[in-house]
Design a protein that fits this description.
Elements: H1 20-39, E1 48-49, H2 62-77, E2 81-85, E3 95-100, H3 103-110, H4 115-126, H5 134-144, H6 157-171, E4 178-179, H7 180-188, H8 198-205, H9 216-223, E5 225-226, E6 232-235, E7 239-242, E8 248-249, E9 255-257, E10 262-266, E11 271-275, H10 278-287, E12 294-298, H11 305-315, E13 323-327, H12 332-345, E14 352-354, E15 366-367, H13 370-382, E16 394-395
Parallel strand pairs: 4-5, 11-12, 11-13, 13-14
Antiparallel strand pairs: 1-3, 2-3, 6-9, 6-12, 7-8, 7-10, 15-16
Length: about 400
């Protein structure tokens, strides 16, 4: 390594902000040094080469380059980096490369904590939840490998702690729904705080760090967070038996009752059809006029814990011959809803059949990416619909499908 050039009277004090190009170079070297630390490599980190004329160094004017020389020289004196200088140019010899020597010294110079330091703090602060929330361990492992989770690193541990407090509050009342902004205000004195924690809640309650992000209400309703308590809306012939008070006759075109009040169903339908979207539910309820062979139930999108509990009580004593169908959008959300219904909502030994959810096979719908198509097919398989594992990469909204009911 050649000696650093004299500064020609241009100096930077230690308290002065780093030149932009200097900070860019040093932060790049800090990242490279941290990667070497994680992999336990004994080889030197790759240099940041600023010799090319299109580098961040040469995009600055002469005065700014000279100002930054003093900051690089200071970093070398502190043992944070090594630097190489050009062979020609006298006292104004240009900088050619920079390489990290000591990760901790470089982080201190930049005024930042290393990933290791941040991870140690995060691990201590999040430790009380590790045994109860398996995904949290995966998050910490990702951070230890210098991978961010939903663009968040270990310095974001406060927000993950808040998300875990939300999950604790929901776990304390299993099978119930809670009003989103009421709970947020109670926990954080901020009615919108929970809505700022969607990435964390999605990861902690989801299928894994690599799973595709879910939509806002898919995450919240799955957890049991709702805008306001919603009724269980049912169309068909029969009566809903209630936990308290008189039974509720299912009038035309439908009735809505509090899910937690449902005890059962006095009816023997040949089939039960759950429907994702409200418009289609209304059309189906009208189409049931004059028929007594089926029951249609609105899921409200992704079914919430209270809906699931009410639906299970509604259908638990139906004849074993009753066939369960689900009809939703032919998209990722629609198949995720079906997978959740199959997992948590059906009576024991029952199977869920798709209703009008194979139409894209016949060429209908709009194209989606291969990634989304793969996720759709995966959720269809989770719903038990192996016959749909060859679906094309197409999506179709439920409202675009002509209404027909099981016969």
């Amino acid at each position: 390594m050649t000696a650093a050039p004299a500064l020609g009277g241009l100096t930077c004090t230690g308290a002065a902000p780093l030149c932009l190009w200097v900070e860019t170079v040093l932060r790049e070297q800090l990242q490279r040094g941290e990667r070497k630390r994680v992999t336990r490599s004994t080889t030197a980190a790759q240099k940041t080469n600023v010799k090319p004329t299109n580098s961040v160094y040469w995009r600055e004017d002469f005065e700014e380059r000279m100002r930054g020389h003093g900051q690089i020289q200071d970093a070398v004196k502190r043992g944070a980096v090594d630097a190489g200088w050009g062979d020609q140019g006298g006292d104004d010899r240009p900088l050619e490369w920079v390489r990290v020597r000591d990760v901790d010294a470089l982080a201190s110079l930049l005024g930042v904590a290393t990933n290791l330091d941040q991870l140690q703090v995060a691990s201590v602060e999040l430790a009380p939840w590790l045994d109860r929330y398996p995904r949290l361990g995966e998050v910490l492992e990702a951070w230890a490998a210098l991978r961010r989770v939903r663009s968040l690193g270990p310095d974001s541990w406060h927000s993950w702690q808040d998300a875990l407090k939300v999950l604790d509050a929901l776990a304390a009342r299993p099978g119930e729904d809670q009003v989103l902004r009421v709970l947020s205000g109670h926990l954080f004195s901020d009615t919108k705080r929970i809505e700022q924690l969607l990435p964390q809640l999605d990861v902690l309650s989801g299928e894994g760090l690599s799973s595709r992000s879910r939509g806002k209400w898919e995450v919240l309703r799955t957890l049991g967070l709702v805008k306001q308590p919603l009724p269980l809306m049912v169309a068909g012939v029969g009566a809903i038996t209630m936990q308290e008070g008189p039974d509720c006759t299912i009038v035309r075109p439908y009735v809505g009752v509090a899910p937690q009040s449902v005890r059962g169903l006095i009816a023997k339908p040949a089939w039960v059809l759950t429907i994702e979207n409200l418009t289609t539910f209304h059309l189906a309820a009208e189409a049931l006029k004059g028929r007594d062979d089926g029951v249609v139930v609105f899921t409200g999108g992704m079914p919430s814990p209270a809906w699931v509990a009410g639906f299970r009580r509604l259908t638990r004593d139906l004849p074993a011959s009753t066939v369960f169908y689900h009809w939703g959008d032919i998209d990722l959300g629609g198949f995720r809803i079906a997978a959740r219904l199959k997992e948590v909502a059906l009576p024991a030994d029952s199977f869920l059949q798709p209703w009008l959810m194979d139409l894209t096979i016949h060429g209908q719908g709009k194209h989606v990416s291969e990634t989304v198509g793969n996720a759709m097919r995966s959720s269809a398989i989770q719903a038990g619909w192996l016959n749909l594992q060859e679906l094309p990469n197409k999506a179709l909204e439920q409202e675009r499908v002509e209404l027909t009911l099981p016969q």
